[in-house]
Design a protein that fits this description.
By secondary structure, this protein is an all-beta fold. It has no helices and 3 strands.
Length: about 70
Amino acid sequence: MPLYEYECRECHNRFEILVGRTVVDQSPVCPQCGSDKCERLFSTFAATVGKSGAAPSCPKGGTCSNGGYS
């Protein structure tokens, strides 16, 4: 299920909702004021790729420039 971010047009509260496929086109209700005048916002996301910046260890000890393979 996707996570959508909304902003209430009445009280300007921002909130997130997990939305199933069957209710994607329905307007949510603001959890703060109860208004149904909410606008879906364009959200960005962050992802981490790969491991930390540590150098790979070499099978013979130390570090290798070929990714740890001999």
